[in-house]
Amino acid sequence: MAYYVILHSTGNLVDSFDREDEARAALEAIVHQDAGEADEYALLTYGDDGHPIGAAVLGADIGVHA
Amino acid sequence: MRTTYGPPQVAAYELRPGERLICWRIVRSEHRDDPVLLSSLRSNFELGLGPRAAERTSRLIHLGVSAYLNEQSAHETAEKFHKLGDWVARLEMEHGNGFNYAHTGSRWHLTIWGDAIKLSDSVVDISPARA
Questions:
Q1: Tens digit of pLDDT for each residue in B67-99?
Q2: Which among B65, B81, B104 is the top mutation candidate for probing chain A, defined by the most A β-carbons within 10 Å of its own β-carbon?
Q3: Which residue of B has its CA nearest to A33?
Q4: What is the pTM of this model?
Q5: Do A33 and B52 touch (CB under 8 A)?
Q6: What's the whole-number mean pLDDT along residues B49-69?
């Protein structure tokens, strides 16, 4: 099982999910709301062992179409 | 908001007398007298950031500071998202300082609550972030 965690660049958790699609949708919503701050957010995936896996999805990488 | 265990909720704990919570926090300075270090120990609420996502439904999350029970997880997280900071601080939090904590997010992730100055006083070591 994987855990999807949205972090702000402050280092603080903003939200977490056990489904990737929900996590991506949440990140997209944040970026849509705060387009100028998109690069301050990232979605990280963690394995059951608590270690991050794969590359982080940066808010700036999320395409938002108004 | 999904907590690590159980239904959507945040179970906050306090430290018992004699108990010490050791955890690691990604920070942006290695210098104890640097205001940047103190800022690195503040919640998004304290930093004046408006609530986003789960912070909207959980005031506790907005008021909390992320930390890790596993040192390596902290270092690896810093490596994945470089804006978090270049340093990892080891905190030894003790009873009697108004600290609370909860298991949130992924395994080893904690949300902690406490005065930033007291959290800073709990820092016993700061090392360069490395994966």
A1: 999 999 999 999 999 999 999 999 999 999 999
A2: B81
A3: B52
A4: 0.93
A5: yes
A6: 93
Q: Which amino acid is at B100?
A: N
Asked casually if ipTM beats, i.e. exceeds, 0.90, the reply is yes
What are the chain B neighbours of A17 within 8 Å (beta carbons)? 2
Could B1 and A42 be called an inter-chain contact, meaning their C-beta atoms sit closer than 8 Å? Answer: no
Give how far Cα B33 sits from Cα of B39, B52, B62, B84, Å: 11, 31, 26, 19
Whats the size of chain B, residue-wise? Answer: 131
Q: Which of A58, A60, A53 is nearest to A1 (CA)?
A: A53
Using CA atoms, how far residue A7 sits from A38, A43, B83, B107, B120, in Å, is 12, 6, 10, 15, 21
Q: Which residue of B has its CA nearest to A42?
A: B81
Q: CA of A59, closest CA in chain B: separation in Å?
A: 11
State the burial class of residue B48 (Cβ atoms within 10 Å of its Cβ: 0-12, 13-18, 19+): exposed
**CA-nearest residue of chain B to A12?**
B66
Task: Encode pLDDT of A3-58 as tens digits.
Answer: 999 999 999 999 999 999 999 999 999 999 888 899 999 999 999 999 999 999 99
Structural domains of chain B, ranges and CATH numbers in brackets = 13-126 (3.20.170)
* pLDDT, mean over chain B: 93
